[in-house]
Amino acid sequence: MDRNVNPPANWPGRLRLALGYLLFAAAVVYALRRSPDSLASLQWGWLVAAAGVMVAMLVLQMAQVVVFLRCHAVRNGRYWPLMFAVKKGILNSVLPARTGTLVLMYMLTRYYPVTWRQYLTFGIVAAVVSLAVSAVALAWLLTPPVAFIGGVSALVGGVYLMRRFPVVPYARALPQILLIGFGLYGTMLLAFWCILRAMGVQIGLRDASYFAVALNILSQLSITPGNMGVRELLMGAVAPYLTLSAATGILAGGIFHVIRTVVYAVCLGSLEVLALRYPTLKPKALEDSAPGA
User: Fold this and answer.
1) CA 283, CA 50: separation in Å to the nearest integer?
2) What is the pLDDT of residue 88?
3) Sign of the Cα pseudo-torsion (27, 30, 32, 35, in order)
4) Domain-embedded: residue 30
5) Mean pLDDT, 10 residues at a time, over the chain (293 residues)?
6) Scanning 34, 39, 44, 128, which has the fewest C-beta atoms within 10 Å of its C-beta?
7) At what angle do helices 174-198 and 44-71 cross, to 10 degrees?
8) What's the number of domains the chain is made of?
């Protein structure tokens, strides 16, 4: 086999990986130079609160996997859905998105009788619902209360109708997907608000919601691995609209990324330790549990 056949196909992913790290490093260095005392004066209690919110975010991501499995009448347990969510968060932070997605789909199909096409379809539906949640949040920020209430009512009514008269895949699970979508948006909002408070920024939840909307929309896209650098630049672009410095937004975005990665890494290590101490928590792969295996 010619060893030179496969490597060129990896260059786009490697380029995006390098670009993401470079953007992230350049943005953080710029922010620290413009605001050198920001990290030294951090209030650690608020950072711990942000970490706790991100644990809730992880639980909601696990719930999303559980909903998908239940749509296919699969007895899911809790270990692998949680492990799936943890690995998804970590891999998407450090690897090109295509690589992480392939690894995660392989793991899902290895332990459950589902196909990668089914999960891909479910992921698209969940992404559309998440964008609809962002639209509702924008209505809360930019329109009169009557328009916001109308938007929420239209979204809920549309979900109800599609559940009664399925016209899209996974229509019957749309209420659960919508609730999880609102929950994930809420955890992004609370986590970012806690981080800003840790930096000494006195900001209300409504104003912090501008950052959460941008984060929620960006999470449906993949520009660089984990959107490193892009996320920080976007947060820096949003900050001036709230009379904050761009450096504040950039640093808050960087801290968000670091805390989330640390929380997910700790959860991953904890799951592995628990599986070693209690082997029954970790179900076998389908091929290992088949008769005659």
Assistant:
1) 32
2) 80
3) negative
4) no
5) 44 63 69 65 88 94 91 80 83 64 77 87 90 89 84 86 81 91 94 92 90 88 74 89 88 89 88 80 59 46
6) 44
7) 170
8) 1
HEC-encoded secondary structure of 148-161: HHHHHHHHHHHHHH
Q: Give the pair of three-digit tokens for residue 16.
A: 């995006």
The dihedrals phi and psi of 252, each to the nearest 5 degrees, come to -65, -40
- In this prediction, residue 285 carries a pLDDT of 62
Q: Does residue 24 contact residue 228 with C-beta atoms inside 8 Å?
A: yes
Select from 263, 229, 243 the least CA-distant residue to 31: 229
Report the pLDDT value the prediction gives residue 2, as an integer from 0 to 100.
43
Measured between alpha carbons, how far is 159 from 154 in angstroms, rounded to an integer? 9
Tokens representing 125 are: 């539906």
The predicted model scores a pTM of 0.84
By residue count, the chain amounts to 293
What is the C-alpha to C-alpha distance for residues 269 and 258, in angstroms, rounded to an integer?
A: 17
Compute the distance between CA of residue 5 and CA of residue 118 in angstroms, rounded to an integer: 31
Q: What pLDDT shows up at residue 3?
A: 43
Structure tokens at 170: 């996974």
Cβ atoms within 10 Å, residue 164: 9
> Which range of residues forms the domain containing residue 249?
42-283
| Residue 223 lies inside a defined structural domain of this protein | yes
Are 134 and 184 in contact by the 8 Å Cβ rule? The answer is no
The answer to whether the Cα torsion of 185, 116, 268, 10 is positive or negative is negative
Determine, yes or no, domain membership for 36: no
pLDDT of residue 292: 46
Q: pLDDT value at position 159?
A: 85
Q: In 10 A of CB 138, how many CB atoms?
A: 16
